[in-house]
Design a protein that fits this description.
The structure is a single chain. The protein is an alpha/beta fold. Helix content is 30%, strand content 24%. It starts with a strand and ends in a 13-residue tail after the last strand.
């Protein structure tokens, strides 16, 4: 338990006194859609989808790789709305490197989210080829999935959410999917290369407007979530509304995001990272660790976090460990789950290598935590400001150390539920569940 490659860890690490932890419940604004399926179909009708379709038209519906709440219900709602209009829908994976950038891998990603022919009631066409539709004035190519290219129309569906790497008028949403997702790995690879030298917003908006102006896009469906990983809003958009409305929705999405209430944290324990949690494995809008061009840059809205300990990876991430490079320490069990091809393909496409670097790792949570708590400076480990979360997508109930309890009790959006108690480990040295 206390050794690395047969060598025993130093005595001060083995004898670490861990901080006592208390459970705290954070509260956030909670608008939500009660009947998601009905809302999707109503929004499709309200944005005039039927007026843009003719009987027998084929419609390619996007489905991305993010873990969007109710995504199977949302996509099925668009499928039903298209069919109600007399057209023929099919779903295609609108993603770049995810799923190893293969047709089979991307179909598997969608299946993990409940999106398959049996559940959608229509074909799911997964391929890796993209067609160049044309070029922007600066020579930037615009790509479209080969199956979608054969269709009469494209219906773009995505969540609008702050991006993990930058802030702009449009971030993660419909425009980014029209620029990057629908172009498969070919498009994603080109655009991420371009972003190293070109303005992200200008390039994304240029490509999105190119597709919209081509007349191929029949509707947009924007989804906004609350801090509880629930559907807060579903908005159907006519093609000409997509860009202007998304610029407004990103502000609302940012306001609804969860957060960690403290300003300074010595050590953040994250139980799970994963592509279904965030495109970056863990959301840098929560942790403050943003990586662009290999450098870490703090988010102005996140706490100042000195150390991050990542314990595990979600099953739905399918071995894609993107984001592990944002951690200061991790576990052997996470490292052994890494699918290097999937992880490295993600880094290659995104042109950001820092996110896949593997930090020091230990066989047990106890050893990893003891080691990292002894790197925070003059503060004794048991006196550190330590916080534990399940993931950056699950911030309602958190565990906080004694050093943060006074701040938690004064916070208007937090309630101390119990504790503090000693950290609990199994006989094998692993932290027990929340």
């Amino acid at each position: 338990m206390w050794s690395v490659d047969g060598a025993e860890l130093p005595a001060d690490v083995r004898e670490t006194r861990f901080p006592k932890m208390a459970r705290v419940r954070q509260t956030f604004d909670r608008p939500r859609v009660d009947d998601v399926a009905a809302a999707v179909r109503a929004q499709a009708a309200e944005c005039g989808l039927g007026s843009r379709l003719r009987p027998g038209d084929t419609v390619a519906i996007t489905a991305g790789s993010r873990g969007i709440a109710n995504i199977d219900t949302i996509v099925r709602g668009v499928v039903d709305a298209v069919r109600d209009a007399g057209a023929k829908p099919f779903v295609f994976p609108a993603m770049g490197s995810h799923g190893g950038a293969t047709a089979e891998g991307q179909a598997s990603v969608l299946e993990h989210y409940g999106i398959a022919e049996a559940t959608m009631g229509c074909p799911v066409k997964s391929g890796s080829d993209a067609v160049e539709l044309g070029r922007l004035d600066d020579g930037t190519p615009v790509y479209l999935d080969a199956y979608a290219h054969e269709a009469d129309h494209v219906a773009v569906v995505n969540r609008v959410k702050p991006h993990t790497g930058f802030h702009a008028a449009v971030e993660s949403g419909l425009c980014k999917m029209l620029a990057i997702g629908v172009g498969k790995q070919t498009g994603a690879n080109y655009y991420h290369r371009a972003f190293l030298r070109q303005d992200f917003q200008e390039t994304v908006l240029g490509a999105a407007n190119f597709l919209i102006d081509s007349g191929r896009v029949c509707m947009g469906l924007a989804v906004v979530e609350n801090a509880y990983d629930e559907t807060a809003m579903v908005i159907g958009l006519a093609p000409e509304e997509i860009v202007s409305v998304e610029k407004k929705l990103i502000c609302q999405a940012r306001e609804l995001m969860g957060s960690i209430l403290f300003r300074e944290i010595d050590c953040l324990i994250v139980d799970y990272i994963g592509k279904d949690v965030s495109g970056g494995g863990m959301d840098s809008n929560i942790t403050g660790r943003k990586f662009r061009d290999g450098e870490g840059a703090s988010s102005v809205h996140a706490p100042d976090i000195l150390r991050i300990f990542v314990r595990d990876m979600t099953e739905k991430s399918q071995g894609n460990a993107t984001g592990i490079g944002s951690a200061d320490v991790t576990t052997t069990r996470l490292v052994e789950q890494i699918d290097r091809n999937s992880t490295y393909m993600n880094a290659l496409t995104a042109k950001v290598t820092a996110g896949c670097r593997i930090p020091p790792y230990f066989d047990t949570d106890m050893a990893a935590l003891a080691w990292v708590l002894n790197t925070v400076g003059l503060t004794e480990p048991h006196d550190t400001k330590t916080v534990r979360i399940r993931s950056t997508l699950d911030l309602e109930d958190i565990l906080v150390s004694e050093a943060l309890l006074a701040e938690a009790r004064e916070a208007p959006n937090a309630t101390v539920l119990g504790g503090p108690e000693l950290m609990r480990f199994t006989d094998a040295g692993q932290l027990t569940d929340f």
